Amino acid sequence: MKQLIECVPNFSEGRDMNKIKEITDVIEAVEGVKLLDVDPGKATNRTVVTFVGSPDVVIEAAFKAIKKATEVIDMSKHSGEHPRFGATDVCPLVPISGITMEETVKYAHKLAEKVGNEIGVPVYCYEFAAKEEKRRNLAYCRAGEYEGLKNKFSNHEMKPDFGPAEFNSFVEKSGATAISARNFLVAYNVNLNTTSTRRANAIAFDVRENGRAKKENGKLVKDKNGVTLRIPGTLKKVKAIGWFIEEYGVAQISMNLTDITVTSVHKAFEEVKRNSENRGVRVSGSELVGLIPLQAMLDAGKFYLKMQERSIGISDSEIIKIAVKSLGLDELKPFIPEERIIEYVMEDKNSKPLINMKLDEFADVTASEFPAPGGGSIAAYMGALGAALGTMVANLSAHKRGWDDRWEEYSDWAEKGAVYYKALVNMVDEDTIAFNNIMLAFRLPKKTDEEKVIRLKAIQDATKNAINVPFKIMELSLASMEVMKAMADIGLQASVSDAGVGALAAKAAIHGAFMNVKINMGDLEDKDFASKKLKAGNIILKKAIALEKEIVDMVEEKIS
């Protein structure tokens, strides 16, 4: 899965759109970054910017944006309703896909060090990036705000993690910055069949982590220090309030899910539904504000499929449909996945030209006079079709009448097959890209000795990749045969032949991909690399031949 992180810097300027544009322009100038949202606030004098990309390009864009903010924003003249202590007040990094929180923390520290050392802005690391427990809380790091920075730097315990610990002329203008790694925040509203804000608020207090103030005989209950005691709500990492939306004529529970790894969208929806029913109110649907990660939608869809005792080994698009219908995300307006799911918004359709073609178009371009797509891409596609057939048999078996007690067993097989299928689909374009990169390397200039060295290295690197790609196709196709074998053995009898065809396709994919591995070895100078791949490839092919025979024999015995 491609690594993606989201960056949500908050800049202390919400009134001068020219200054805001200067900042967002440097973000958009970084290739590979997609600017998703710019949300200025006049009262707060603050703008929240959201952009996404691979980790390195996001770090580059964030650094340039922070630098530009120090140039166009003068904190000595700033005022606004929101707490702040710097031109770039906060800059959180959020893991979206293909990257762990631990890895994201490393990028946060990398950005913080770069900002502190190269720009000269004092940086505090908070939340998951905090270097000490008490600094996890942003309020602690930002205590005293901009006006308190001078005194803060004189306190050893409050010195920044990176950058200068002095209130020099530059810091007087730039202020300080807080950089973090945090989980994704989802703004999510649940629709109610009432117009009563009071009832909506009561439900919000039931579920939000902060709950409601504790009362006895109508009076607030306080501790010995005079602090009002609270009755916590049922959902962790959730902020919520009830309100009436005149546009739609309904009351809503408006929630910020500040950590969807703790409270997911579907968990919040179900808990609001439960508490609403307890108060005589019905949930009619919900509304997503902004964007959401793909995994959050897949988790929701799978949750409801499991409730129905249905297989979860189906396509992402079908899982998302289940999530949308179950959560009622299309009640107020259409929910378009391509516009609301971060990975789909980021997706470059041109990066997968082959797999996005129609079947006849793919066949036509393969049959053309161009050398790519060739055997490697076709091998990947055969492997994908083989895995798809095994997955299909598992899904059909999960729905067979009379096998209701085994739906989860077959669902597990279907989910495993779907993983291999998706991976092999991606390899269809990867193989052609690998071939094209070899051609590009051969076109590099070779007039000088330096150019010749660069060209030779590029050719060798591209050749190794053109070997690794079909080798990966071999590995994935062999692994997928485990699904076909299981389905030939315990799958739906009426579809056992499909498992057999899947095995034949997988073995053909492995044999075909191995031919591409070997033909690309001709110009490779690293003979040790070639020898290891050749040896490993022969082992995979031998296993595939034996496994294909075992599966086909099982199928033939059953159908005869």
Distance between the termini: 42 Å
**Proper CATH architecture of the largest domain:** Up-down Bundle
User: What is the approximate shape?
Assistant: globular
Q: Taking all residues together, what is the mean pLDDT? A: 94
- The CATH homology group name of the largest domain: Formiminotetrahydrofolate cyclodeaminase monomer, up-and-down helical bundle
The biggest beta sheet reads: 7 strands, mixed
CATH fold annotation of the largest domain: Four Helix Bundle (Hemerythrin (Met), subunit A)
Helical content, roughly? 40-55%
CATH class assignment of the largest domain: Mainly Alpha
Overview of this protein structure:
The structure is a single chain. The chain has 560 residues and is an alpha+beta fold. It folds into three domains: 4-181, Formiminotransferase, N-terminal subdomain (Formiminotransferase-cyclodeaminase, Chain B, domain 1, 2-Layer Sandwich), CATH 3.30.990.10; 186-336, Formiminotransferase, C-terminal subdomain (Alpha-Beta Plaits, 2-Layer Sandwich); 349-559, Up-down Bundle (Four Helix Bundle (Hemerythrin (Met), subunit A)). The chain has 18 helices and 15 strands. The chain has helices at residues 17-28, 55-72, 101-119, 138-141, 149-154, 169-174, 197-207, 265-278, 294-307, 316-327, 337-340, 342-346, 359-366, 375-398, 407-442, 449-490, 496-519, 527-559; strands at 4-7, 10-11, 34-41, 46-53, 88-97, 123-127, 177-181, 186-192, 212-213, 215-216, 219-220, 230-231, 238-245, 250-257, 283-289. The strands form four sheets. Strands 1, 2, 3, 4, 5, 6 and 7 form a seven-stranded mixed beta sheet that branches. A four-stranded antiparallel beta sheet has the order 13-14-8-15. A two-stranded antiparallel sheet has the order 9-12. A hairpin with a 2-residue loop joins β10 (215-216) and β11. α14 (375-398) runs parallel beside α16 and α15 (407-442) runs antiparallel to α16 (449-490). It is globular, with a radius of gyration of 29 Å.
